[in-house]
Amino acid sequence: MDTSNNQAELEIEKLELQDADATLRNDLDALERRWSERLVISTPANLLFSKSQILAFFRAGLVRLKSFERRVTRVVVAGDTAVATGSDTVIPLVGVDNGKTVFCSYMNCWNRENGEWKLLGRQVAVVGKMRPDGTFETSSG
Amino acid sequence: MPATDHPEEPSILIVEDDDSAREALSDCLEMEGFRVASARNGKEALDYLHSSPPPKIILLDLYMPVMTGWEFREAQKKDAAIANIPVVVVSAFGSGMTRKIDAEIIMHKPLDLDRLLTIIREHC
After folding, report:
1. Stated pTM of the model
2. Residue B83 Cα, gap to closest chain A Cα (Å)
3. What angle do CA A69, A75, A77 make, to 5 degrees?
4. What CATH architecture does domain A3-139 belong to?
5. ipTM of the complex
6. Are A75 and A13 in contact (CB under 8 A)?
7. Mind listing the domains of chain B with CATH numbers?
């Protein structure tokens, strides 16, 4: 691995963790800065969201989290494109999963736009859900 | 049966067994200004249609417990009172499974919201 690639991978890993932190804090300014205008998010609900659609969800209070733990498992950088994989463990404060611990796997795609890394694509899959009493609701993985 | 709290009549009926998917789609459509009712399977959808004013369009999942989307569609077509409500099938199945259902439009998951909204606006 060459040094520049290594640096880029570390940068992406840092951005991944910042993205999770901004999501937890509902820091929409940070998310808006880091997300490409062409962002596509494929959610566990099998809906494709654009940047404006997902931000509208945040603004409407439909995305609120009690906790968000992200573990980055791999980052690969090729030129101006980077792919990151990992797991997200979240506890939502709203919706049908309110209070449950939701375990997800994900893949994020980053693109360097005008010298700045922007999140261009995100695919999330739910692996399992744990109720507050510790029992599992569903598990597909 | 889960349904919206809106006092107005819903113009869209979502038939989907996955709670998260149903809620997310309902939230999206309500944010776009539509009134939405929902059902967790084909039987709940038929019960809703027999007891409520007809929606302008039905968004139908296929693989559901109790009554599948295919079974719902067959029952709907046999009932003159509800047979003409347009149905958009929303499924992750390939064409081998989806072509067995007679529906106006078939959309594949993950669902392109922009395209779905265009279709809905043509009917609502």
Report:
1. 0.87
2. 28
3. 145
4. Roll (3.10)
5. 0.81
6. yes
7. 12-123 (3.40.50.2300)
